[in-house]
Amino acid sequence: MRGLSVRSIAGQVFAVQVLVVCLLIVAATTALILQARVDSEQEAINRATAVAQTFATSPGTASAMRTDHPTTLLQPRAEETRRRARLDFVVVANTHGIRYTHPKPQYIGKTLVADWRPVVKGKIVTESVQGPSAGKSRPPSRSRRATAPWPVWCAPG
């Protein structure tokens, strides 16, 4: 009895079937990896938005922003929120884009890098940025990060 050789019709059909199965496995794996990436980016955006909204609407945030020294009141709260939520940064800024809080104190008082103008107009904005980690507990990375500026509405007066 003769075995299957690549030269026989049956051998050629078998080789094509093996090739098709391998290509399907590679395509399915690639699709799963891409879907997981999209899902993780969406989860990061959702998480950043939820934390930003919660921090902005939490008791004392609006009143702290109206004081003469908002950093004194907001910096400890922002850092505690950042640590508990395991985020790279929680930054509070005024309507001119000047930071009141930042995990690296040397950035407090400096202008935001992100586009803050739509937020001042009441729009919710999310963006993904590429850059080193802002957290002190992690080494710098080139991962994508989601940012979600959220407006804090203060009562007039």
Automatic annotation (TrEMBL):
The keyword Transmembrane helix applies. Residues 39-129 form the Single cache domain. Its main location: membrane. Residues 127-150 are annotated as: Disordered. The keyword Ligase does not apply. One of its GO terms (cellular component) is plasma membrane. It is a multi-pass membrane protein. It is found in: Cell membrane. The chain crosses the membrane at residues 12-34. InterPro entries: sCache_3, Sensor-like_sf. Pfam families: sCache_3_2. Gene3D superfamilies: PAS domain (3.30.450.20). Keywords: Cell membrane, Membrane, Transmembrane, Transmembrane helix. This is Single cache domain-containing protein. It comes from Streptomyces violaceusniger. The lineage of its organism: Bacteria, Bacillati, Actinomycetota, Actinomycetes, Kitasatosporales.
